[in-house]
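INFO worker-7 received task bundle
INFO bundle size: 2
INFO processing item 0
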Amino acid sequence: MTKENTNGMGNRRGSVRWQLLVMLSIGVFWAGCASAPGVNPKGQIGVVDPSRVLNETEAGKKVKESLNAFMKNRQTLIELEEKELKRMEDDLIKQASVLSATAKREREEQFRRRMMEYQQKVTELNREVQEKQRDVSDNFRGRVEKVVAKVAQQLGLLVVLEKGKGAPTLYNDGSLDITGPVIEEFNKGGY
């Protein structure tokens, strides 16, 4: 070992040389990227807002209308059951004073059974609505992903992140947002 290495100065000089070499390499890399045609490190990322795509595309509006009609249909079924239960309850109250104890117990039991059936039906209809929402959402999301991929390829993007409420993107420069072109492409059809 040389004296330079044993006193620690050589290690510092080597470390400084290494740091300079790494910084120079990074600088050359970024300069090469900046001068290469069509390569822009900042512009390789895009963001898209799926809720805007849902709200601003014809297909998204149709999906929402279809889902709303399905939910309204289920709500109507629930309301019919509620009216029937209310009618049964009113009849039971009106006739309670003229019914025998046995007849009153039978009507109360019948009402309880209908109430349990109603609660089961409500649970079943809610499950149907949730399944429909999930299916429709998954289907539409798959269609959005295809359009996003196409637009991203056209723009030369390497990564597209989701933005919006609950999405992983907390902040992005507005220039990265490709939602507008995605909506335009989606509205062209075929997705």
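INFO item 0 finished
INFO processing item 1
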Amino acid sequence: MFNDYFWKSYLAGGGQAVVRFFETQLSERFTPDYADTICELHRAYCPEKKINETLHEELTDLHKVLADDFVWYEGEPPTIDMAMQVLYEDFFADDDSNDRVKFAWFANSMAYFTTMFTIAWPKWFVPYYFCWNYNILEKIADEFGIDLPDIPQKREYKARFFHYGKICEAFADFRRQYGMSLYEFCAFLYDFAPKAVGGIDSYIIKDIPKPKSAYFIGGAKNDAYLTYDEEEIIAWQCSPDTMAGDAVVMYLRSPVSALDSIWRSVSIGFNDPFFYYYRCTYLSRPRKIKPISYTQMKEDPVFSKLWIVRKNMQGVNGVEILPSVYNYLLDISDSDAERLEFAVSNEDISITNEKDVEEKRIKPFLEALGYTEADYRQQLYIEIGNHNYALIPDFVIRPVVSKGHQSADFLIEAKYSVGSVGALEAAKTQARGYAKLLNAAYAVIASKEGIWVTAAGDDYTDDVMSFSWSQLQREDDFHQVFRLLGQGKFSTGG
């Protein structure tokens, strides 16, 4: 939360000069220095050089416009909603434009437009310099208690435009709460807060883990944001489910239609309402592969079965690749990139009791899902009422327990053997009681035969999925479980 002591220390230690910079530039005289300073601040929380260069170009272009006797609307709308409506209907008016085209115009020059809006109507607006970095804005909001509005859906282009106005309303509420001027808030938003949440280091992973999933993305060789420098980090449209370390396969539409390279995600995927393509991931460490042309893919016995290939690779960005297909791609492209491998436990191990199930099946299973022993508890003893307690004896994954409240991502109930429908239903009944106490998303039964997964949505009744241990030796089958229960798939927990 916001700490007044740290904020005042920042102002006393040089922050007041940043406040004065914003006040001078946005209310008195907008100079070329503005672009230089904003981009210097921007580099603390955005690693993408091209994004920084584009930001500089937009603000430099704005300086040229403002220097040419720029004429704005007369007067000022009485509310921010009306101000946004004026902008949408008048400033972005074009009889031939639909909502998508208008939004694209706005989103592709958002720094330019929002800085202009702020200079003209400072009562309502705040310049926006988090394009491709809504993740940082969300971190700042979480850290300091700014109540951001819900993000509109991807195809709600008009709502995405008006989302900027709603964010400015949230900013205004925060400013009023802590008595900040617009210019103090700009210093807070673009200097103090990004540094407080950790800047680039808060989301760019340097020591990336082994890949757990793989995705297709698409581009062209002349894309402005594309570079093969292994040290560079680029932002790209991908799946919001992307995890740090995941493999990302680039399909180039031109000059030839072919699979071209393999990248690694160095951030978690996220949605950004002001990035036109909405879904964003930061990538790095490209490795060229022997090209696999679209013609080859159509004729290949494995690739030809993929729906994305049958659709001519249209909408390729963020399409997940099955582990078996990804590993096959590595084989035929002569790539030495890391494979998608999941080591559960050996199928032929001896299981003679429930303890064996726990030690030889469940613990290796959790390890393959990405969990360490610090991520789960056995023999969890929790308070469930006034001086009442319950023992949850098996595995509770990422528990959060405090007086009067407890939760967990999921739990595993161990049984030596589940050899009949009746035995399975009895185990589910037991697990259901534990799962309800913990508000768990899933309950898992594990025995010497395999696993059964149920979900909170239907009161842990029907199987979401079930696999024998031999089936879990197959990479695609295990990956289904990983997509549901793997480390990083939950937003809450301990």
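INFO item 1 finished
INFO post-check item 1: The chain has 15 helices and 15 strands.
INFO post-check item 1: The mean pLDDT is 91.
INFO worker-7 idle
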